[in-house]
Amino acid sequence: MEFTIFSILDLLGTFAFAVSGASQAMKKQFDVFGVFVLAFVTAIGGGTLRDIMLGDTPVGWMHDSILISVIIVAAGLTILFSPVINKLNFYVYIFDALGLGLFTMAGIQSGIDHDLSIFICIALGMISATFGGLIRDIITGEKPMLLTRKEIYALACALGGIVYFALRALSVPEEISVPATIVVVFLVRHLTFRFGIRLPTFGG
Amino acid sequence: MEFTIFSILDLLGTFAFAVSGASQAMKKQFDVFGVFVLAFVTAIGGGTLRDIMLGDTPVGWMHDSILISVIIVAAGLTILFSPVINKLNFYVYIFDALGLGLFTMAGIQSGIDHDLSIFICIALGMISATFGGLIRDIITGEKPMLLTRKEIYALACALGGIVYFALRALSVPEEISVPATIVVVFLVRHLTFRFGIRLPTFGG
Amino acid sequence: MEFTIFSILDLLGTFAFAVSGASQAMKKQFDVFGVFVLAFVTAIGGGTLRDIMLGDTPVGWMHDSILISVIIVAAGLTILFSPVINKLNFYVYIFDALGLGLFTMAGIQSGIDHDLSIFICIALGMISATFGGLIRDIITGEKPMLLTRKEIYALACALGGIVYFALRALSVPEEISVPATIVVVFLVRHLTFRFGIRLPTFGG
């Protein structure tokens, strides 16, 4: 395996997702084993659901020992340095936003490999990027952040997907459209968060 | 795609399931995105689980743009007209009961296509018809209606399945046995609800 | 199908898992149907997730009518004799610990059949043995016992898996390594429970 800039960003995104799972498990007083399980579920849950629904089995992480090592290290570091990691929240947040973009792109690519429609490809991007966190919240009994946080999170994935397919329609080469998509997801997520732009909710 | 009476009923059932998911999401103060996600999960969750367990991948809805459009429209209308939809509860309930029968029949058919036993075929019918709602309740943190509501819901699917295989054993043609099954599910669901017939529970 | 000592232990483990699901459903006041569903989910949930992720579809229980009969009988007996079963808690606990070992071994075997790494094989063993209970807790709204109970449960599966691959590396024949693995899982689970040895948790 060669380490490209993307594979490194991908592992950083996985790292951030694993940290978010491990942190939430510790807040909920899970035991050591539970912390590792939730780190895994958060980091690979979205991609696993995508692979299962597409029939890409055995699912991807089963052949990816580097990915697994990264998750184990992330969970271990979260346990050992949880006060520090809380201070490093900004970096975790940045990696998480990058991971969002990278996982979105990976999901879109899976959909294209299966000749699926643009809508489904974008849905697969969103599922890959966000369902790990949804499963994390279900397991820990939290109100799902994905669905209720009002922050622009999944929508960032969708906008990135639209940009990707727009560039593709214009025959822009992948070397440009792929990084552009990841940057769009990152920026939409980051800027809307930074300026407090939120989705409306209902009820009361 | 030609529109038969069944495909139209199927879309109406999907519509009703999507409305039920979207309504519950709004009650739980999910954001706009969350309302659409829960509409999808409720409408396609049962069929997705069936397809995944059978290995029928990519799962059905990925190639069914009409189905997806119906869900989007259902969620959109629920958001726009939620007070009206509450008044239309009776129609939603009727579509839901029809959807229950149609999804049961679709699940049974999948089992037959895979040469599975009658018991498993009926189980697949029940899973197709009811697990979307179960997942909806898990995500929203509700006590699962499927398992605790005491209303005759999944049992209606099972009785429909038994009728289907009884007619099949008697060599009754599909043109009769399939609609008969859907009608049985609908009637069992409707009449037991109408007359308050319930399943016993335990504990206290 | 011939009944070997393993197939009988396997069915006893399935029986115990089904009883645990049915018991929890009754405590939560699920209706009769819900009790049966939770018995099934608890007994076959872990193996189903394993099969789905590996692409071994249709999943195993769809072709195993004896397994299904055992689950139905287990749920039925739990309903009929729940006070007695509470008194028989010790036997349920023993079967459960045996089931843990047997399901671990079955998961490891699936991983080997797919030429997966030792780490993934052991992970599949743990998933097979423990995720049915995790799904049971999610559906019933319990804090997941697997992740928070602090008892040595999934770790017992992991230790059994390590013993299995150590024996395999030493070219010990399967006739010895397989039962040894099951015994190790059982003993680690049993002895740590007996002597109150627990995993640390976090927070407070």
Description:
The structure is a homotrimer of 204-residue chains. Chain A is mostly helical and 204 residues long. Chain A has one domain (5-194). The first copy, chain A, is 77% helix and 0% strand. Chain A is built from nine helices and no strands. In chain A, helix 1 packs across helix 2 and helix 2 (32-54) packs antiparallel against helix 6 (118-140).
Sheet having the most strands of chain A:
none
* Structural classification of chain A: mainly alpha
Q: What does the average pLDDT of chain A come to?
A: 89
Helix content of chain A: over 70%
Termini Cα gap of chain A = 52 Å
Secondary-structure map:
Three copies of one chain form a homotrimer.
Chain A: H1 5-27, H2 32-54, H3 65-80, H4 82-87, H5 89-113, H6 118-140, H7 145-148, H8 154-169, H9 174-194
Helix pairs in contact in A: 1-2, 1-3, 1-5, 1-6, 2-3, 2-5, 2-6, 5-6, 5-8, 5-9, 6-8, 8-9
